[in-house]
Amino acid sequence: MKKPVVLWLSVVGLTMLLVARPAFAADVQVMISSGFYGAYSELGPAFERASGHHLVTTRGPSMGDSPEAIPARLARGEAADLVILDGNAAEELGRKGLVRADGRTELARSLIGMVVREGAAKPDIGSVESFRQTLLAAKSIAYSDSGSGTYLSTTLFAKLGVAEQVAPKSRKVRGPPSGEPVAAVVARGEAEIGFQQVSELIHVGGVSFVGTIPAELQPRFSFAGALTSTVRQPEAAAGLIRFLASPEAAPVIRKAGLAPPGGP
């Protein structure tokens, strides 16, 4: 029980060093996707306690056709000071002028993993060929409606030559806030195997984590924080990004199933 307390106190102490106590408390509007939310849910309160600012958080996918997706929210004028989402999605928002070109910072790196229902046999996905055979043998497949699922359904399945075979047995799962993690669908037995970024799989009950897909098939996902082009609280928002990207936040990021930028 002592380690979490020590970690929490060290995080709070770091935040006090990184974030100067403001003359007034700001409401910082944050839009965030699910992949980094586990780390953010622990680090965000530490930032609030030390800085005096209040984080107003809206969740949504990094991309996809959901009206809750962060790009869709920004495009229709929803207010945000910063976004935390898939790095490629952040770059695309920059090209569209929705986030500031000088305000993007990498926060973590991420891998795609696979789960099966708890108690089920774990298929072999250790090589490209064994992974391909697992896809063909599965009776049903679930993937997310955001970055990892988009990559699987539009790129990887075709690259492996299995797109036509897996399409009829695949299901795209809408994520939070109105939806759920892919692992929840697998836990109920509604899909035999499920894919999502590791950070979104490992803390869901009722499933067994099989592992990550082969390294040569990984799309090199990252999560980034970026100030929006309409940021109203730039100093407070930049302070949050600086804190989330600090080396001292790395233990929390690792615990969430992610890798800090530049670290193992």
Explain what the structure shows.
The chain has 264 residues and is of the alpha/beta class. It has helices at residues 2-18, 37-51, 70-75, 87-95, 128-137, 147-159, 163-166, 182-187, 234-244, 250-255; strands spanning 27-32, 54-59, 82-86, 99-110, 112-117, 141-144, 170-173, 193-197, 207-212, 221-228. It is globular. The protein starts with a helix and ends in a 9-residue tail after the last helix. Mean pLDDT is 89; it is low at 1-9.
Quickly describe the structure.
With 264 residues, the chain is α/β, with parallel strands linked by helices.
List the helices and strands and how they pair.
Blueprint: H1 2-18, E1 27-32, H2 37-51, E2 54-59, H3 70-75, E3 82-86, H4 87-95, E4 99-110, E5 112-117, H5 128-137, E6 141-144, H6 147-159, H7 163-166, E7 170-173, H8 182-187, E8 193-197, E9 207-212, E10 221-228, H9 234-244, H10 250-255
Parallel strand pairs: 1-2, 1-3, 6-7, 6-8
Antiparallel strand pairs: 3-10, 4-10, 5-8, 5-9
Number of helices: 10
Oligomer: single chain
Structural class: alpha/beta
Total number of beta strands? 10
Q: How helix-rich are the residues, as a percent range?
A: 25-40%
**Which strand order does the major sheet show?**
2-1-3-10-4
The succession of helices and strands, N to C, reads: HEHEHEHEEHEHHEHEEEHH
Q: What labels describe this entry?
A:
single chain, 264 residues, alpha/beta, 37% helix
